[in-house]
Design brief:
D-Maltodextrin-Binding Protein, domain 2, 11 strands
């Protein structure tokens, strides 16, 4: 009798376990996943948007990954992501993709807070990064090597910097390279002799924003286009957005989505 009872209880537990698994599976299978990858500049702001979106839309999973603008563009062209992210303009061969500008960002020249230099000309910035100016004494400060920091090849931030600042000149191969804006910021925050460039939305008290040609890199000057080193943050798709992806993009372009980007220090598409 006891043996029969134990067998019966084991059977009940097995059935209950299977039901729970099915419920869990059905619950997770109802989640609508949107995969986004690309620019490490756009990524933290997309993650912030995704957090807010998923609170109001718990049926969605917005999976945001980095990799850089070029990697995001390539993934989009290969249809391995739903949405690509870029912080640079598309090259001619990439223009098969659909572009959706979600906001605008300033590329800001930053130095250590203890650096007394407040303003540089565009030519001086260019000459620091092409290797013509190597010492701070040439800019009126101490006799000390300039520790210039750049982004890696394929970075959208670097692409924008090359287009807007370097022009036809190359970035010196001997310059330190970091693989994210956050890493550039970290180096500059700990090195009094460093200088680099990062997204406006990442500038805080740990680094000092440098004016360019006498124009302070603030929101007002970026909005009125007085500050010239500006770039778009772009979502990309190879074909027409699927319903799930479009729902998220519509949220990003809405007033609620744009308010989040403004709060993060970026420029709305409606400004």
């Amino acid at each position: 009798m006891h043996k029969i009872t134990r067998v019966f209880m084991l059977l009940i537990l097995t059935i209950f376990s299977c039901c729970c698994c099915n419920i869990s599976h059905n619950s997770s299978s109802k989640k609508q996943t949107v995969t986004i990858a690309g620019s490490t500049s756009v990524m933290p702001f997309t993650e912030k948007l995704a957090e807010h979106f998923m609170i109001d839309h718990p049926e969605f999973i917005i999976d945001v990954q980095g990799g850089g603008s070029t990697a995001g563009i390539q993934a989009c062209m290969n249809n391995t992501v739903n949405i690509g992210m870029s912080s640079r303009q598309l090259k001619e061969a990439e223009m098969v993709l659909n572009e959706i500008v979600i906001c605008y960002d300033g590329v800001i020249i930053v130095a250590h807070p203890q650096n007394p230099i407040k303003d540089l000309s565009l030519k001086q910035v260019r000459d620091i990064f092409n290797g013509k100016i190597k010492n701070w004494k040439d800019l009126g400060w101490v006799n000390r090597r300039i520790d210039a920091v750049s982004r890696e090849e394929g970075s959208g931030t670097r692409g924008s910097f090359e287009e807007l600042v370097m022009g036809s000149e190359d970035i010196d191969d001997g310059i330190m390279v970091q693989d994210s804006n956050g890493s550039v910021k970290e180096v500059i925050a700990t090195d009094p002799y460093a200088i680099g460039y990062i997204s406006l939305g990442l500038v805080d008290s740990n680094v000092k924003a440098i004016s360019v040609d006498g124009i302070e890199p603030n929101l007002k000057n970026i909005k009125n286009k007085k500050y010239k080193v500006i770039r778009p943050f772009i979502f990309l798709s190879k074909e027409r957005l699927q319903k799930d992806s479009k729902t998220f993009v519509d949220y990003v372009l809405s007033k609620d989505g744009q308010k989040i980007l403004i709060k993060e220090g970026l420029i709305s598409i409606y400004d």
